[in-house]
Write a structure and sequence with these properties.
heterodimer; A: alpha+beta; Glutaredoxin; 2 domains; 5-stranded mixed β-sheet; 7 helices; B: alpha/beta; Rossmann fold; Ubiquitin-like (UB roll); binds flavin mononucleotide; binds iron/sulfur cluster; binds FE2/S2 (inorganic) cluster
Chain lengths: ~160, ~600
């Protein structure tokens, strides 16, 4: 086993053991791993299976069901755009098209250099401020084309400086 | 009054008096605040106070419901009332605070409303168009107190209902109060809450659960999240009351992962209750013990369905169970359970405190109390309004909501979430009422009212709703799994101007099959948005699908996983195929 695999396993184990809420289940453990390392490596699936005395198959079944989880390294920066009905009637699609063009993507996904990822969300929960998007997990309401492009550009710049 | 509560009341009074002796600044920094930029505002507030060496208490509160004017900056001066500043820009914060706190002259230019004081030309808070006509019960503390602060909550009549129940009533009396208040579920189906609690009370198992459903996946509905971020103690008190009335032992608040403000604030409030003996063993020194915890769920709309919720609490895929057995017999982990929406439970403290007659005197014949409508879309004053049932839809949309921000005419409302329907402008004189709205084909559901002006294409919006339903179908039963996909195909064709003859009839047939063949409400009601929009806007559908001449083609980027199967999950882990596959169900059956 390589060191990096061991490190991942250690991190996953740590996340599972220090999860914040009382009831420990497959799902709560997975959410905790996702929160602390940003993705679910296969070592984590095995660790969750061990702690919850279930099988890797069961854990994979849960992990692949919820769109929260990802199974590859996360991009450095992230944008989430809401396409729910409120944001839709307020022009979310046009904002989305502009962001996609700016980032150079056609749909959800990541840039090839893994620096920026775009995800669509069914409702970011703050519809009265629609159209809504989030940039590096900070919610931003009353989105306009200009505001979206400005925030997207600043994330893209951030990636180049790193 | 219990001795323990007497002590708490005393402490709370001291804390509240102390609070009112200093200037008090409140900024809403929950989810709603964050989206409006209030995290910058609160930073500026702290800086301004420090650099100008001012004395003030600063509280991070939740949304007050006036989302259109957020970020709000609310400044209270001892004996001089409050001024609420709206749409505050970070660059003005220091100026506002210096003028108001140091010089004692509130800046009219940025003021939105006043409370307990007069400022020339600025309306009273209760006279704002959005506030006029509101009766706030579940939202009574919204934006007023620090979420999860027990002293502030008690100073505003908090836990009085619980204390009275524990010291003066036996469980059946509390149950009786809820029954005769006429409270009905606010989560969608509008089922009598007292009757539901009665099912659980009738089960004598030693361990029973009260589940508070805060999943709220409905786009357009945000009142549960608002209650949790602004006043989680109302929910907690309600949940303890539900536990007492039904002899339950455990409460679970179920919230979607990622909504940090509601989650963290509820968590903090639960901890505070344990510290003050309001949760745990022998609550307020009584015989009654009750535990409460938070469980998070992944992104899944169907997880809000009551049996899917129980699966998710157990950490599995949120797929609905077959019924019977019903939750009151076999619920989460096999223990008898009762499920209510966050709003429903949050009404209980005030009902117990003020009595059932008080509650049932508000509202209509069959829909008692208030409704919390969530206004979003093409509306000037977006946010939350808590109005008595029986208020007309037109009043809510045109007066309280202020109509379209650009004075365009409103074409229709999308109500009841992605399984609901539309209400057209000519139906707006209808009074808010569970049954009347359902009869018109538009559920009130959990209160989302998405306002759409004349420029909205109902075909296009229907496609979005069906895309949502298709993506969120859990896949357990095929009428829903395939039906939603079929409907989306047909609506996609319609929006691209490529409809086939017979598409309308096909949709109708698919919808009918979903209705009769699906396991849960998601599939059973999944055709609602289409049926309702078709009824209201048949000529628009006909024009878009089969019309002559210029059909507007609508492009639509949808998440990749709206087509389940096209989702890339990365490499399937090799260890997934295990030879010794064993499945051990871990249910401890009740009794
Ligand atoms: C697909 C589906 C999704 C639902 N989502 C929610 C939800 O997010 N929140 C909620 O309170 N109820 C939801 N419900 C309704 C619940 O099943 C349940 O009826 C409700 O929580 C009961 O609470 P009440 O009696 O207080 O209304 C959903 C139902 C279905 C069929
Ligand atoms: S109706 Fe849809 S959501 Fe409900 S169980 Fe069937 S597939 Fe799942
Ligand atoms: S629909 Fe976009 S935030 Fe709710």
């Amino acid at each position: 086993m390589t060191t990096s695999q061991n490190v991942l396993r250690e991190k996953a184990r740590n996340a599972i053991e220090t999860q914040p809420y009382k009831t420990i289940t497959v799902l709560s453990s997975l959410l905790s791993v996702q929160d602390s390392i940003g993705w679910i490596p296969s070592e984590a699936l095995e660790e969750v299976a061990r702690v919850t005395s279930s099988t890797v198959n069961d854990v994979w079944g849960v992990a692949s069901f919820y769109p929260n989880f990802r199974f590859t390294l996360p991009p450095k920066n992230s944008i989430e755009v809401c396409w729910g009905p409120t944001c839709h009637v307020l022009g979310a699609q046009s904002i989305l098209q502009h962001i996609l063009a700016e980032v150079g993507l056609e749909n959800e996904g990541e840039t090839s250099d893994q620096h920026l990822g775009l995800k669509l969300n069914t409702c970011l929960g703050v519809c009265p401020h629609g159209p809504v998007a989030s940039f590096n997990h900070r919610l931003q309401g009353k989105m306009t084309k200009e505001k979206a492009l400005r925030l997207t550009k600043s994330l893209m710049k951030e990636t180049q400086n790193d | 009054m219990t001795e323990d509560f007497q002590k708490l009341t005393l402490r709370s009074k001291l804390a509240w008096d102390l609070l009112s002796q200093k200037p008090w600044i409140r900024v809403g920094t929950g989810l709603f605040g964050e989206a409006s930029g209030s995290l910058q505002i609160i930073d500026e507030v702290y800086t301004a106070i420090k650099t100008n060496a001012l004395e003030a208490t600063v509280s991070e509160v939740g949304t007050s419901g006036l989302c259109y004017a957020e970020p709000l900056l609310d400044i209270q001066i001892p004996n001089r009332g409050r001024v609420i500043y709206g749409n505050v820009d970070p660059s003005n914060v220091e100026y506002i605070i210096k003028e108001h706190l140091a010089k004692g002259s509130p800046t009219k230019k940025f003021a939105l409303a006043t409370i307990d004081c007069h400022l020339e030309g600025i309306p009273k808070f209760k006279d704002l168009p959005m506030m006029k006509g509101q009766i706030r019960i579940a939202l009574r503390n919204a934006g007023e107190i620090e979420p999860g602060d027990i002293d502030q909550y008690i100073a505003n009549n908090g836990f009085v209902g619980l204390d009275r129940a524990l010291s003066e009533m036996d469980p059946s009396e509390v149950l009786g109060i809820i029954k005769s208040s006429g409270l009905r579920g606010r989560g969608g189906a509008a089922f009598s809450t007292g009757t539901k609690w009665g099912f659980l009370a009738g089960n004598t198992a030693p361990k029973k659960y009260i589940l508070c459903n805060g999943e709220e996946g409905d786009p357009g509905a945000f009142n549960d999240k608002a209650i949790l971020e602004t006043d989680p103690l109302s929910l907690i008190e309600g949940c303890i009351l539900a536990g007492y009335a039904t002899n339950a032992t455990n409460g679970v608040v179920f919230i979607r992962h990622g909504h940090d403000a509601p989650i963290d604030r509820t968590n903090k409030a639960i901890d505070a209750c344990y510290a003050d003996g309001l949760l745990g063993k022998n609550i307020l020194g009584s015989e009654f013990s009750f535990d409460m915890e938070i469980v998070l769920v992944g992104e899944s709309y169907v997880a809000g369905e009551e049996t899917a919720l129980m699966e998710a609490v157990e950490g599995k895929r949120s797929m609905p169970r077959f019924r019977p057995p019903f939750p009151a017999a076999y619920g989460v982990w096999g223990f008898p359970s009762n499920i209510n929406n966050i709003k429903t439970i949050s009404y209980a403290p005030e009902i117990v405190r003020n009595g059932p007659e008080w509650f049932s005197s508000i509202g209509t014949d069959k829909s008692k109390g208030t409704a919390i409508a969530c206004l979003s879309g093409h509306i000037k004053f977006s946010g939350l309004v808590e109005v008595p049932f029986g208020t007309s839809i037109r009043k809510i949309v045109e007066q309280m909501g202020g109509g379209d921000p650009n004075s365009k005419s409103i074409k229709f409302l999308q109500t009841g979430g992605p399984l609901g329907g539309v209400l057209t402008n000519d139906q707006f004189d209808m009074l808010l009422d569970f049954d009347e709205m359902a009869a018109a084909g538009a559920m009130f559901g959990s209160g989302g009212l998405i306002v759409c002006n004349q420029e909205t294409s109902s075909v296009d919006l229907t496609r979005v709703l069906i895309a949502f339903d298709q993506m969120e179908s859990c896949g357990k039963c095929f009428p829903c799994r395939l039906g939603t996909s079929h409907l989306l195909d047909i609506l996609d064709r319609a929006c691209l101007g490529k409809s086939l003859s017979g598409d309308l009839q096909l949709m109708e047939r698919v919808g009918q099959n979903m209705k009769v063949g699906s396991l849960c409400g998601h599939g059973q009601l999944g055709y609602n948005p289409v049926a309702s929009a078709l009824k209201a806007f048949s000529s628009e559908f006909n024009q878009q699908m089969f019309g002559e001449g210029d059909i507007e083609i609508k492009k639509f980027v949808a998440p990749l996983h709206t087509r389940r199967g096209s989702q890339t999950l990365g490499e399937t882990p090799t260890s997934i195929v295990k030879e010794d596959f064993t499945f051990e169900p871990k249910l401890e059956a009740s009794q």
